[in-house]
Amino acid sequence: MAVLIVESAGFICSGSHPAPTLRFENDMEASANKKRILILGGGFAGAYTALYLQKLLSGTPDIEVMVVAQENFILFTPMLHEVAGSDAAATDVVQPLRKMLRRTSILIGDVESIDFEKKQVRVHQSNLVNRRDVTYDQLVLALGSVTNFYGTPGIEEYALTMKTLGDALVVRNRAIDVLELADSEPDEAQRRAMMTVVVAGGGFAGVETVGAVNDLLREALKLYNNLNEDMLRMVLVDAGQIILPELGESLGLYAEKQLSRRGVEIHLNTAVKSYDGKEVVLSDGTRIPSRMIVWTAGITPVPIVATTPCAKERGHIVGNEFLQVPGLPGAWALGDCAIVPDLTRPGKSCPPTAQHATRQAKVLAHNIVAAINGQPLRPFKFKTLGLLATIGRRTGVAEIMGIQFSGIIAWWFWRAIYLSKLPGLRNKVRVALDWALDLCFSKDIVQLRALPTPTMSGREALPALLVNEKACSSPEHTEKIA
Question: Domain ends where: 252, 282, 297?
Fold first, then answer.
């Protein structure tokens, strides 16, 4: 049997493809000699399902586990804002799938379509014309989610997001750009617009992002001679009555108070109405000149989920307590793309958190093996252990086993718990070192751009270079900076 995990945030191509179809080598042989379990998704839900499966299936030669994902790593999303705020290095919050899943086959590509009747998934690998068709016997849908802009005018064109590692690096680079450009801007109005950063969304992602970026900018300001803290404006916008509603009113109010003390302007009961790249318009009519907005105000399942022929709720696949997809024999679902009933809270579904995804993965791995062996299935039942959030330097909020914490104690709990959950010993050591060095040294403000180096052809460029040399030597072509 083989297990395949596939992650995709791309679009579905349901029709015929002009490009030829390329099957896996020995794919038909594998189908004849083995059974294949296909798991779609390389995030917490998918990767940990594969991890538990390879443990349960160790020493079983007729079972193969395969993961297909867009990226060759698993991202530890709770520390994403640490990258944006220059508190941790980008490669320290990811773990290569091939290191984590040593006995699992890995295929990097995009899922283009799923044929539930033929039990076949079509995968497209970037830079390759051919598609690959992969058959399966069991299918696990752990496709994750993507950012949802809800049709807000201008947001899709101009807003930054905080969903992937690339997003965090872009936010970090743009935050540093705020200071680099504003330092040499002579116009006061333009300078203030450049130094205004808006974050939409008062949940965990939004609050932690605004706290991290606020710390980064205020600490780096001392390196810029023409700037001061009075010029910086950090704005958090949320449509709810309190921020961090999952933690309750008291901790939400505490977080709001602490952020306000650190210079963050908070707009509640208000939503972003539009953004044209220069000005943010709020639902109460407020206009905020800004060149940077970070959107964390909503997510939705990846587009491929919409093509799944099963029951859905708010765009999510509806699963049962055993993580099965009713109506699709041999199909399972978990993580952000699925609605799984919460047996500890009758009538409600499990929240889309990492602690639920990893525990769903363990139960699902057991159920897949049980289904293969004709044994009883185990229902998923798990009560949230706690919720934690950082709201800036050495300050956090947390609720653990029903007990609330705030301030430096909650911040310490956040670091201790998430450091212990970070995949890979190497990552744990390097992040711990990053945090230790942060106590003694200032934040790094080096911009890490992922753009190709400019090139030129020497033969074609020589005449232009000669013209430029003559132009630069002429007084009338020389610009002076007063």
Answer: 297
